[in-house]
């Protein structure tokens, strides 16, 4: 997969994921966002969820992405980014 393919997928499925899982925003970061991914790289995605069923929706999004992209996903909640890495990650996130 390429950065372009992943961001295209996220863009075209964003409305469905918003409806099903309460996604407010979604973006790609990490090695795929930097075009440095290797064959064994996971896909790093960050989301902001607006949900009272946060755990269910988090795992729903995770499984949805892994099923559709057929790749290991490292899914992070924007609100839970560790302070020591938050700024670096926010600089490289490609929001769709």
UniProtKB/TrEMBL annotation:
Pfam families: NTP_transf_2. GO terms for molecular function: ATP binding; metal ion binding; nucleotidyltransferase activity. Residues 11-96 form the Polymerase nucleotidyl transferase domain. The keyword Nucleotide-binding applies. InterPro entries: NT_sf, Polymerase_NTP_transf_dom, Type-VII_TA_antitoxin. Its cofactor is Mg(2+). Keywords: ATP-binding, Magnesium, Metal-binding, Nucleotide-binding, Nucleotidyltransferase, Toxin-antitoxin system, Transferase. Transmembrane segments: none annotated. Belongs to the MntA antitoxin family. This is DNA polymerase III subunit beta.
């Amino acid at each position: 997969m390429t950065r372009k393919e992943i961001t295209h997928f996220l863009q075209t499925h964003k409305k469905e994921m918003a409806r099903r899982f309460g996604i407010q925003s979604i973006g790609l970061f990490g090695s795929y966002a930097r075009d440095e991914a290797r064959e064994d790289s996971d896909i790093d995605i960050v989301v902001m969820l607006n949900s009272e069923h946060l755990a269910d929706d988090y795992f729903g999004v995770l499984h949805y992405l892994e099923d559709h992209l057929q790749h290991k996903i490292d899914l992070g909640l924007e609100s839970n980014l560790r302070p020591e890495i938050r700024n670096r990650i926010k600089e490289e996130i490609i929001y769709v």
